[in-house]
Write a structure and sequence with these properties.
InterPro entries: Ald_DH/histidinol_DH, Ald_DH_C, Ald_DH_CS_CYS, Ald_DH_CS_GLU, Ald_DH_N, Aldehyde_DH_dom, ALDH-related_metabolic_enz. Keywords: Cytoplasm, NADP, Oxidoreductase. Belongs to the aldehyde dehydrogenase family. GO terms for molecular function: glyceraldehyde-3-phosphate dehydrogenase (NADP+) (non-phosphorylating) activity; lactaldehyde dehydrogenase (NAD+) activity. It is a single chain. Helix 3 crosses helix 4 and helix 3 packs antiparallel against helix 6. This protein has 14 helices and 28 strands. It is of the alpha/beta class. It has a seven-stranded mixed beta sheet, sandwiched between helices. The chain has a six-stranded mixed beta sheet with strand order 11-10-9-12-13-26. A hairpin with a 2-residue loop joins strand 1 and strand 2.
């Protein structure tokens, strides 16, 4: 159970503590932040409402801890990460329980997230040893006009203090995707988890605590974004920000100054289906991509662009699969569970009502109970409807019928988002041409969009983000190049 057993020290009464200086602490504010269970719509957990002074303390401690951590042998850093990964996987059940109750993630998917996170940490440890164990050696006479009088040695060194801000939908996995690379590269880390998902994140951080990482190296600060959000992201002690979320990221990027940024800010992932596509394959991936975790994924299929000649057939196939989706509480492993909050449900409903007023075809009746919205496929959607452009982050999927490939590419590229897209066709030549034309960070051919596997590059264009994620890219991003040049008194050449 959450907050019990090895996790007993992270809770005081009914309020979970925050983590700083290698200890679990209560905030001096005396205040807490409630976490609402999306299913019951009642308070499930409470976390500390940390103060700006406590943020200052975490930053101060992180800076000091990073100096000695950077001197820790690379193999030792990797060893501790492997230990944390094993502890995380060993305690997957109570962490998964938090995900079920905080964000209504289906129970089996919650367990999968925790196990995947452990695997990510271990892979990061191994990849870090390989990447950081290599340097470059350059000689000066490879550039015109120079003799061999300079030897250049390059290596990768840490940036300093990393501020990590994951989103509610993967509060454990997207946290460790930032924590792992930060730690293996010799950085310290301050984690600000989302409110919905904070308790799962606190349990995850305790696994790093149990692994024996140095005090102060990792902090986990909880609280209201309105009180400590800007204070964190604009803090002079931060040397890099890794953020996954929505519009807030744009505001952060404008305030961050010269701090390196790694951001993924959402998408309107388009699925283009051509006449020659395997429609059963396409339909299966559209339902999986559009409705997994109730559509609350940045890489969810957000709009289907299908050629008119096969649209009727595809829509019928998708409708048949949607009819088989189970709807209900996450504890029952239902396919469609409540969305994360009432405000999210209201926003989704606003998109649906707009489409209704503008005569979209409802393939199922619209049904909502509290935060639970039944899966809905909208056919004959037009570009003047909000759902054609806005990201619902819920189980509602629009279908736009197109008359040419160019029309589909144009709609995809007209979006302000550019995270991922996919194309279904049996013609690999067409697929590559369309992939090149789509202004997205990734294009999946004959599969739904997906972030993983976690070592693949993951990036967005336009408003979908800055920089690239994925284990290798994150390791490189959280380091900078250090160069040492040896100047020789006379040119040095290999003797014959």
């Amino acid at each position: 159970m959450a907050g019990n057993g090895v996790f007993a020290e992270i809770i005081d009464g009914d309020v979970f503590k925050y983590y700083c200086e290698g200890e679990w602490k209560k905030s001096a504010s005396g205040k807490s932040v409630a976490i609402i269970n999306p299913t019951t719509r009642k308070t499930q957990y409470k976390v500390q409402a940390c103060t700006q002074e406590e943020v200052n303390k975490a930053m101060e401690i992180a800076k000091a801890a990073q100096k000695s951590w950077a001197k820790t042998p690379l193999w030792k850093r990797a060893e501790l990460l492997h230990k944390a990964a094993a502890i995380l996987k060993e305690h997957k059940a109570p962490i998964a329980e938090c995900l079920v109750k905080e964000i209504a993630k289906p129970a089996k998917d919650a367990v999968t997230e925790v196990v995947r996170s452990g695997d990510l940490i271990s892979y990061t440890a191994e990849e870090g040893v390989r990447i950081l164990g290599e340097g470059k050696f350059l000689v000066s006479d490879s550039f015109p006009g120079n003799e061999r009088t300079k030897y250049c040695l390059t290596s990768k060194i840490p940036l300093g203090v990393i501020l990590a801000i994951p989103p509610f939908n993967y509060p454990v996995n997207l946290a460790v995707s930032k924590i792992g690379p930060a730690l293996i590269t010799g950085n310290s880390l301050v984690l600000k988890p989302p409110t919905q998902g904070a308790v799962a994140a606190l349990h995850m951080v305790h696994c790093f605590h149990l692994a024996g990482f140095p005090k102060g190296l990792i902090s986990c600060i909880t609280g209201k974004g309105s009180e400590i959000g800007d204070f964190l992201t604009m803090h002079p002690g931060v040397n890099c920000i890794s953020f996954t979320g929505g519009d807030t990221g744009v505001a952060i990027s404008k305030k961050a100054g010269m701090v390196p940024l790694q951001m993924e800010l959402g998408g309107k992932d388009a699925c283009i289906v051509l006449e020659d596509a395997d429609l059963d394959l396409a339909a299966g991936n559209i339902v999986k991509g559009g409705f997994s975790y109730s559509g609350q994924r940045c890489t969810a299929v957000k709009v289907v662009l299908v050629m008119e000649s096969v649209a009727d057939t595809l829509v019928e196939k998708v409708k048949a699969k949607v009819a088989k989706l189970t709807v209900g509480p996450p504890e029952d492993n239902c396919d469609i569970t409540p969305v994360v909050s009432e405000s999210s449900a209201n926003f989704i409903e606003g998109l649906v009502m707009d489409a209704k007023q503008k005569d979209a075809t409802f393939c199922q009746p619209y049904k909502r109970e509290g935060n639970l919205i039944w899966p809905l496929l909208l056919d004959n959607v037009r570009p003047d409807m909000r759902i054609a452009w806005e990201e619902p982050f819920g189980p509602v999927l629009p279908v736009i019928r197109i008359n040419s490939v160019e029309e589909g590419i144009h709609h995809c590229n007209a979006s302000n988002f550019g995270l991922q897209g996919c194309v279904f066709t049996k013609d690999i030549n067409k697929a590559i041409l369309i992939s090149d034309a789509m202004e997205t960070g990734t294009v999946q051919i004959n599969s739904a969009p997906a972030r993983g596997p976690d070592h693949f590059p993951f990036q967005g264009l336009k408003d979908s983000g800055i920089g690239s994620q994925g284990i290798t890219n994150s390791i490189n991003m959280m380091t900078k190049v250090k160069t040492t040049v040896i100047n020789l008194p006379t040119p040095s050449y290999t003797m014959g």
